[in-house]
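Help!! Second protein's tokens look totally different from the first
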Amino acid sequence: GREVVVLGSGDIGMIMARRMTLEGARVKAVLVISIFFYYLLPFVYLV
């Protein structure tokens, strides 16, 4: 199966996470967009 990470926890992000779950994907995380994310981006490795 597919594993996904959704960037954005607003309405669209939550709808997409639910839709992907219904389509058979495994949602690993729903991330909140914030200014601190851009400082951490070089240290985040998504597999």
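Here's the second one for comparison:
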Amino acid sequence: MTGTQPYILDASALVELFNGHPAVMNMLADAEVDRFSVVAPAAAVLEAQVVLKATPAMWEYMLDRRVVELPLHGEASVEAGNYARPRLEHHPMCRLLTGPPMVGHVLREAKEMGGAIVTVIPENYGGHDVAVTVLD
């Protein structure tokens, strides 16, 4: 990781990565020259896969060395579950790319890393003290 604030891609941003969104592609180009880090929590990859139905080879190609996939285990799982709990308790029906476990994992990584969340759906992160970069 670099000393610069990392970007944490949520499921909606990963879908946009596959769609070739210019802002995401620019982030990856900058990451290649080590200007900053781009990461994807495993829960975001899982939820994006529900929409994308991509092959493992496609994921490997898209993530390559530019995007670091963050595992969800141990203390990170517990913390992500704590972030997800209010959404599960109060909003049991969620639309695609807004799943509480994914949102919790993304929030946990953003808080732990001090990074900015990249998303098409900023409402996922309302009420939390995190930086959010919205893809248009």
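Reply: Different proteins will give different token patterns, so don't panic. The mean pLDDT is 89.
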